[in-house]
TrEMBL record:
SUPFAM superfamilies: Composite domain of metallo-dependent hydrolases, Metallo-dependent hydrolases. It comes from the Bacteria. Residues 321-434 form the Amidohydrolase domain. This is Amidohydrolase family protein. Keywords: Signal. Residues 1-27 form the signal peptide.
Length: 464
């Protein structure tokens, strides 16, 4: 069998699995009883209870919940039930093999556009990374690519990991940029170039939006005018007044940044050095409507009080304990614990560049164990679990809907065979929107293939 034939066979098998899994799209009514319940709320204690899901949403959670008649009962004795994990900032569905450019949509190095790049159009629902993450208990994620040709990575999307073709739940959910060392390299070799480029871009977007409103009010019917919370209608773009010769952004990029300066689209800023973090926070002095989210923040603990006072959430990696770059000289594994103690809202991430979202429970568990290290600052169990469920959902704009077991929340439920923050535990059943999901993927098929392999079928070379 040729390489092409094998690849085609695997692709068709994945597509067939997706189609068969997508057939029962009607949400199931079920209740899990007798399990240890972790709601995802950092303030809640873990304890025994019952969770009831009907019509794709959670309707009841608690120790004394009665199961309605006609609802399928799942015996959870000896197991744990939790909300699905929410992975902030992933590249799920954007590449198949990182080293094969044809399968890799994570970066648009040669594009004439930057802020306008919309990663929702490239997400592949039958991607194996989505399947393996789902098998690890991940039910929601945000997806974006890398800054490559500009400091602007583009517009990220929110997805669910259900086995159906409609994985994108919100396109153009946020904009991401890089400052610090990465931004400096992309902007011209210095941080001063980053901030000149960034401020100029935001000013152009603001002016572009103002002129768009004027042009729309004066020359277009009301049905195509757009409010401050929506992207510019493309039919308006051609009718805008000339912007002059001193602009850097294309009209498409300026239109994409308009929701950012209006505060209706979050701006994720990648920054590690404490000084860069303070410069990111200072952007609000000139653009007060910015809805900022910090990404990375390796030295965040040094300015945690300033971050907390600004009310800016952080998506931070949990395991940076040694500097990998000059902008991480003050890195410490206690970074997240110290920021949380200072009142900063922190989610664990990003999960990009081969960092798998299904490892999130292990990383959260490490932060719990860190509390036992003299002189270190970790998290409580509930704080750590919230950092991979309810907190990233809140940062992504889905607070109260995802990452929690609470009445009215989406029916994203995971049943584990033990404590989810223990590396020996694994999901046994996963539900997205109340629909049970397949947990098979290339890895599970290979496991089953070689688990009981008949050695008589092996070539002679394997007999010695």
């Amino acid at each position: 069998m040729s390489k092409f034939t094998r690849r085609l066979t695997l692709t068709l098998a994945a597509a067939t699995a997706l189609a068969s899994a997508a057939t029962p799209l009607v949400a199931q009514d079920f209740a899990v009883t007798g399990a240890t319940v972790a709601t995802g709320d950092a303030r809640d204690r873990v304890g025994p209870g019952t969770v009831v899901v009907r019509s794709g949403r959670i309707v009841a959670v608690g120790p004394d919940v009665a199961v309605p008649a006609g609802v399928t009962v799942i015996d959870g004795t000896g197991m744990w039930i939790t909300p699905g994990l929410f992975a902030p900032l992933t590249d799920l569905g954007l590449f198949d093999v990182g080293g094969v450019q044809e399968s890799n949509d994570r970066a648009a190095r040669n594009s004439t556009f930057s802020a306008a790049l919309d990663y929702s159009v490239a997400v592949n629902p039958i991607n194996q990374h989505i399947m393996t993450s789902r098998a690890g208990g991940v039910t929601r994620a945000s997806v974006v690519g890398y800054p490559a040709g500009s400091i602007f990575a583009g517009q990220g999307a929110l997805i669910d990991l259900g086995a159906d073709p409609d994985v994108v739940t919100r396109a153009r959910a946020f904009q991401m940029i890089a400052i610090g060392e990465t931004g400096a390299r992309l902007a011209g070799g210095s941080r001063v170039a980053v901030h000149a480029l960034l401020r100029n871009a935001l000013r152009e977007a603001r002016e572009f939006g103002d002129r768009a409103q004027i042009a729309g009010s004066a020359s277009r019917p009301a049905e195509i005018r757009r409010g401050d919370d929506l992207p510019l209608d493309p039919r308006l773009v051609d009718d805008l007044a000339e912007r002059g010769d001193d602009v850097e952004l294309s009209r498409f990029d300026a239109a994409a940044l308009r929701p950012v300066v209006q505060g209706t689209q979050p701006l994720y800023v990648v920054a590690d050095r404490s000084a860069d973090i303070l410069q990111a926070l200072a952007l609000r002095q000139e653009f007060p409507k910015l809805d900022l989210v910090l990404v990375g923040a390796a030295e965040g603990w040094m300015v945690a009080d300033r971050i907390a006072a600004a009310g800016v959430p952080v998506i931070a990696p949990p395991l940076i304990d040694l500097p990998e770059r000059f902008e991480q000289l003050a890195a410490t594994q206690s970074n997240i614990g110290r920021m949380v103690d200072a009142g900063v809202t922190v989610a664990l991430g990003p999960f990009m560049d081969m960092e798998q979202p299904r490892n999130a429970p292990q990383y959260a568990g490490n932060l719990v164990g860190l509390q036992n290290v003299p002189g270190a600052t970790g998290l409580t169990w509930s704080e750590a679990f919230a950092a991979i469920t309810s907190v990233p959902a809140q940062i992504s704009g889905m607070g109260g809907q995802a990452g929690v077991l609470a009445p009215g929340a989406l029916g994203d439920v995971v049943i584990w065979d033990g404590d989810p923050l223990e590396v020996s535990s694994t999901p046994v059943r996963v539900f997205v929107d109340g629909v049970e999901q397949p947990l098979t993927n290339h890895q599970t098929r290979l496991r089953e293939r070689y688990r009981d392999l008949d050695e008589q079928t092996l070539p002679k070379a394997y007999s010695h």
